[in-house]
Amino acid sequence: MRIPFIGGNWKMNLSLDEAVQFVIDIKDKLPDPKNVETALAASPLFLESMLKANGSSPLHVTAENCFYKNEGAYTGEVSPKALSQMGIPYVIVGHSERRRYFNETNDIINKKVHAVLSNGMRPILCCDETMGRLETGDRIHWVVNQVTAGLKGISEKDALKVVIAYEPSWAIGTGHSASTTEAEEGCYLIRQTLADIYSDDVANQIRILYGGSVDPDNIVALMKQIDIDGILAGKSSLKSKEFLELANYQDLQNK
């Protein structure tokens, strides 16, 4: 019922030429989108060129972030309206690095979710737990709080367009992935939270991703978990060969 979603987030990496070549290298080697959806989130500087290189490929060229207003005196920000007009289908909002380095609050992130949806795109809403909260046993409250706040005022109809990404910050870029049990626990908790906010039916239709040091060695085990519908990779998405292994994880599973 929930189509697996394999996404990559390049963050502030690669050059324009590298980004375009990356798309050219992978676009004809991706799985059937009826079986697995694929996406790459890149700098706004690269998106238009990536879209042109992508053509009719099933790859979703995705934005890493946007502002919560369509226009105005907001120097350096990215307009969700402009992204929509370009043909961008997904936008990442609420990534832990945006929360940590740019002081984005739950309220700001909620506004971004509304802005993305109102412009006909789909948000990938990230939620996080910190190592401190994990060690003190407070992770459950933290994850639930970010999901609940991020979806404030979002209708059931629009909630079905949202993808949730569970990314414990202690596992992002550290090489230390959460165990499959920890990852599944977090995603299960998110699904139960969605059921509390909306209904079991809605919760069972929303895709929940895991992100945090995912690579070809652990993706198969992660994708076998009941509540993990996909992944959002960082470092492993920076090399075309490795990203293709992630995208075609079902081939790894059959080996």
Automatic annotation (TrEMBL):
Homodimer. Involved in the gluconeogenesis. Catalyzes stereospecifically the conversion of dihydroxyacetone phosphate (DHAP) to D-glyceraldehyde-3-phosphate (G3P). It is an enzyme of class 5 (isomerase). It catalyses: D-glyceraldehyde 3-phosphate = dihydroxyacetone phosphate. It comes from Fructilactobacillus fructivorans. Its EC number is 5.3.1.1. Keywords: Cytoplasm, Gluconeogenesis, Glycolysis, Isomerase. Substrate binds at N9, W10, K11, G173, S213. Belongs to the triosephosphate isomerase family. Its main location: cytoplasm. GO terms for cellular component: cytosol. InterPro entries: Aldolase_TIM, TIM_sf, TrioseP_Isoase_bac/euk, Triosephosphate_isomerase, Triosephosphate_isomerase_AS. This is Triosephosphate isomerase. PANTHER family: TRIOSEPHOSPHATE ISOMERASE. It is found in: Cytoplasm. The active site is at H95 (electrophile), E167 (proton acceptor). It comes from the Bacteria. GO terms for biological process: gluconeogenesis; glyceraldehyde-3-phosphate biosynthetic process; glycerol catabolic process; glycolytic process. One of its GO terms (molecular function) is triose-phosphate isomerase activity. Pfam families: TIM. Pathway: Carbohydrate degradation; glycolysis; D-glyceraldehyde 3-phosphate from glycerone phosphate: step 1/1; Carbohydrate biosynthesis; gluconeogenesis.
